[in-house]
Each structure stands twice: as structure tokens, then as C-alpha cells.
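Weekly structure sync, notes
Attendees: PL (lead), two postdocs, one rotation student
Agenda item 3: pending single-chain targets
PL asked that the sequence for the first pending target be pasted directly into the notes so everyone works from the same version. It is reproduced below exactly as submitted, 200 residues in total.
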Amino acid sequence: MHSKIKSLTIVLMTCAFLVGMETVASAQGRGRGQGGPPAGVPAGGPPSGVGRGIGTSSDRSNGRADNGRSTASDRSNGRSDAGLDRAALQRQNVERADRDLNDHPEMARRLRTTANDLRSGYQTALLANPNLKFGQYVAATRLAANLGARHTSITTGAILAGLANGHSIGQTLQNLGVGKEQARNAEKAVDREIKEAKKH
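Predicted structure, written out during the meeting:
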């Protein structure tokens, strides 16, 4: 009887030991399973600044972010370059106009205006059309003065607008209602008028 009790006790202790080992192994398996973060990584995700922000936007977008930033810069520089070219052209034309007025100090008076009026009016016109030549501007003012009484559509501004759209003075006059022959004669008359005004 004593031997049977001793054997039963050994069996029970062995079972308890096996159950305990199984419990420990199960707990370790849950701790290393896929539900938890990798070793060394906080539960809340990667450390701040790692894998986030503009520094990795290129990697995540396969280079599209870099291309976008580069393209935006190129577009901006293009606008800047165009603005600088436009300002340089305006400055060159103003300098040529000043030389023309200085070389022919009586021209403005003979054209029944003043040098300051021609200069300021030309500078304003260049804002809309930086390619406008000073001679074209002077011709536009004289054509408007000579034809405006008979053709109310003929104004300095209307002629300048036609030139800004790439038309010649003759084409502009015809577009404003002047006959082809009359437009040619008016243009020739103004050319003679300006040449006479420039004579010392």
C-alpha cells in the first residue's frame, strides 16, 4: 500500500512539472510572436524622424517628389529669367530714346509736344510692349493727332495696341477703319514730319 502511494505521488509530480513547462513555453511564444514589435523598436512605432518627412518622400514616391521640386524650381527660374530679359529690353529702349531726344533737342517742340511727355509716354507704353521702338511710339502719337479728327477710332493707344499684337502701323490703321491708300499716305506723311523735326 505504501509503495502504491509513493508511485502515485511521483506520477502526479511529473504531470505537474510537465504542465508548468508547457505554460512557460506558451508565454514565451506569445511574447515573440507577430503581434508585438521587433526587438529594439518601441511599441509606438519607429523613433521620431526615422522613415518620415521630406527626406524619405523621394524613396516612397520613387523619385517623383524630387522631380516635382526640381520642376517647380525650373518653372520659377524661367519666370525670373523672362522678367529679367523684359526689364533689360525696356531699359535698353529707354536709353535709346534718351539718346534720340538728346541728339535732336528740337524734335519734341517741332512735333508740338515736350521731351518729357514723349519720354514718360514711351516708358508707359513699354510696360505693355517691351519691343516697341521709340520711333514707332512717336509715329503713333503723330498719326493719332493727324487722323483722329476724321477717324475717331484712331488714337495713340489703339495704334500701340495693334503694334503690341504684332501688326505693322499700316495694318493697324487699316484694322481701325482707314483705307489702304490713305493709311499708306498717312504713314509716309508722318515719316517725313519726324525726319524734318530731327533736322538741326
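Discussion points:
- The chain is about 70% helix and 0% strand.
- The mean pLDDT is 77.
Action: rotation student to compare against the earlier draft before next sync.
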